[in-house]
Amino acid sequence: MAEKKQHKVVSASSGKTTAAKPQGVAAAQIAQSTVGLRVGSIILWVVAIVCEFLALKAILAPEDAPFIPGIPPLYAGIGFLVLDLVCVIIGAQLWKKANHIHPASEKNKLLFWLWNNMGVIVCAIAFLPFVILLLTNKEADKKTKTVGTIVAVAALLIGGFASYDYNPYSQEEQQEMLKMEEATSQVYWTKAGKVFHIYEDCSALNRSEELTVGTTIEAEEAKKERLCKICFKRHEKESGELPAGADVPAAANDE
């Protein structure tokens, strides 16, 4: 295998030698950390479960909840359910944001769905036990059961719809986007040539010592008329797609 040609690469915007490559959306996502988002989600979800417990305690055992004096037990319980809902929804939004930065693989459809909709699962945990325990409690009066159940079920539905990821993003989609970005988000050209290239190791550049790297707009400003035919054929073969704006007239060789 031929050794890859080492070029001196100069940035079109700064005019300085650079080793950095322009970073596209997918590359920027991969570079981000999701630890804070996921930790934040988990903390909020734990608080939501605690609020569910406090709501039950406020309604079914108000004598053991001295921290809410003067507030009717049912109203205190509803207040905790509302706080429960807020924590569930915010936690789900943080989790979904993390998933769109570092997505899961969709090879296992079930695990992919569960991971992307963890907020829905937590939402069920945060409200269903409350409904079941309230309805099966023999000491609670009819009004308390009715109002408490309606509020909890409404919160369950609102939280579930708000937590569901309607447009899940997969690891495979991100990798495909990354491949496309690597090929099309940066272009190279030489001072003398009339074309630009999307691959630094294009065989047409083997005789060139220095390359300029920049956007397609910068390439056009530098009087580079079109995409290199060799790069075009390679990209078409690898991805099956034509890079945006890459109209390639018939030509024997490019440099």
Task: Determine the number of helices (DSSP H or I, runs of at least 4 residues).
Answer: 9
Largest β sheet strand count, sense and barrel closure: 3 strands, mixed
Helix fraction by DSSP (H/I, runs of at least 4)? 55-70%
Q: Taking Cα atoms only, what radius of gyration do you get, to the nearest Å?
A: 29 Å
> What spatial order of strands do you see in the largest sheet?
1-4-2
List the uncertain runs.
Answer: 247-253
Strand elements, count: 5
Order of secondary-structure elements: EHHHHHHHEEEHEH
Structural class: mainly alpha
Taken as a percent bin, the fraction of beta residues is 5-15%
Q: In one word, what is the shape?
A: rod-shaped
End-to-end C-alpha gap: 22 Å
Mean pLDDT: 82
Name the descriptors.
3-stranded mixed sheet, 255 residues, mainly alpha, two-stranded parallel sheet, rod-shaped, disordered C terminus
Describe this structure in words.
It is a single chain. The chain is mainly alpha-helical and 255 residues long. The chain is 56% helix and 6% strand. The chain is built from 9 helices and 5 strands. It has helices spanning 25-31, 35-60, 73-101, 109-116, 118-136, 142-163, 171-184, 216-221, 229-239, and strands at residues 8-11, 187-189, 195-196, 210-214, 226-227. The strands form 2 sheets. The chain has a 3-stranded mixed beta sheet with strand order 1-4-2. The protein has a two-stranded parallel ribbon with strand order 3-5. Helix 2 packs antiparallel against helix 3 (73-101). The longest helix has 29 residues, at 73-101. The chain is rod-shaped.
